[in-house]
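HOLO CASE FILE
Compound: alpha-D-galactopyranose
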Amino acid sequence: MEAEHSPGFLPALRSWRFLLPGMLALGAVWLAGCASAPGHKADAIIRQPFGQTKDGMPVDLYTLRNRNGAEARISNYGGIVVSLKVPDRYGAYGDVALGYDNLADYLKDSPYFGALIGRYGNRIAKGKFTLDGHEYTLATNNYPNALHGGLKGFDKVVWDAKLLTRAGRVGLELHYVSKDGEEGYPGTLSVTAIYSLTEDNALELEFTATTDKDTVINLTHHSYFNLAGKGDVLHHEVMIPASCFTPVDSTLIPTGKLEPVEGTPFDFRQATAIGARIGQDNEQLKFAGGYDHNWVVDKPPGQLGLVARVFEPGSGRVMEVLSTEPGVQFYSGNFLNGSNQGKGGRVYQFRDGLTMEPQHYPDSPNHPEFPSTVLKPGEVFHSTIIYRFSVRQ
Ligand code: GLA
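Model generated. C-alpha cells follow.
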C-alpha cells in the first residue's frame, strides 16, 4: 500500500489538518517523504484499528517509520509504545520493547508495558499529600502507597490523537483532559504528549500541561527495554551520570536523603553490567529485589541532558536517554515473573526488561526538600524525554 510521492509533496504537509480527516477515513497511510533513495523507505505514519476498550471506545495503533526503516508502533490507549524496531550493529532491525500483540492483553493485565505514566509517576506515600493546606487522598494501588497515577492512570485512558509531521520527523500528538478530582488529584489537567521518531533513530516524547487549580504532576514513560530482543537484561551495561540517588524504605518510598553512590552498587558513573552487583548483600537492593530507584542526575535543573546510557554487547545496540527531568528511575524488571505472555508468545521472565523513567523524584509532594512537582494555574508544564538508538561495533 505504500507509494512514493514527488518532492513537491512536502509543502502540502503544512495543510495536513485539511487532509487529515480524509486520510483517517481511509484508515490510512500517510507518507511524509520526498522521493526515497533506493533501499530506503520514505517517512510514514500508518493508522490501524487496535480494538476497543471494555466500554466500547475505539482504539488505534499508529506506526511511525523513518527513512532508515526504524519503526515505533504507538497506541492512543495509554500512549503505549507497543513495539520499537531499531538496527543492531549488522543493520538487522529488531524489536527492543516488551509488550503485547493485542489491545485485549493490555486491558487485562500489564505491568505498565510501554505506557505513558501520569498524573504522578512512581509512588506517593500512603496515597496522601497536602497542598495549600488541603489533604488529598489517592487510591493505594501499591499497598500501602499510590503508584503511577492510580487505579486508572494515564496508562489506561484513551487519548485523542493527531498525526504530525515536522522537518525530519514523523509524530503523533496525544491529548487528554483529566477532570478535577480524577484519581483524587486536584485541578482539571490538560495534557499534550507528542511522540516523534527522528531521522537519527530517536523516539522523542514532549509533554506540556496546564491546570485550573494548584496540583502536582510527574509525567514519565514506562517502556521496558531489552536491547538484545531476548533473554534477561543482566548483561546490559548501564551508565547513569549521577553522584547521588534517593534511598528508599521497605515500601520503596524515599527516606528524603540524597545518598552518594560512591562505593555502592548504585554507582553507574562508569558503565557497569546490571548483573555485576545486583546480587550484593545491600539493604537497598533487597528492599526493591534489585534496582528500582531514583538517581539524582548531575545536570542543571530543567536542562536537556543525558540521564542514562545502556549498551548491549551482543547486538551492539546503544540507547541514550536524555531528559529535562532531574531524576531517572532505573527499574531492572524485578516484578516480571513469567506471568505475562507477550509478543510472539514470548513469556517475560524475571529481569527480562529494564525501564529508564526520567522523572521528578518519587513522593516529592511529601518532601519539600525535593524539586517541586507543583503546577499552578497560568503556568505551563514542559518536559522532554528522548530515547536515542545507535550501535557500537
Ligand atoms: C516502577 C516502579 C516499580 C514497579 C514498576 C512497574 O518502575 O518503581 O516499583 O512498580 O514501575 O511494575
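CASE NOTES: The two ends are 35 Å apart (CA to CA). Helices lie at 16-26, 103-108, 283-288.
CLOSED: yes
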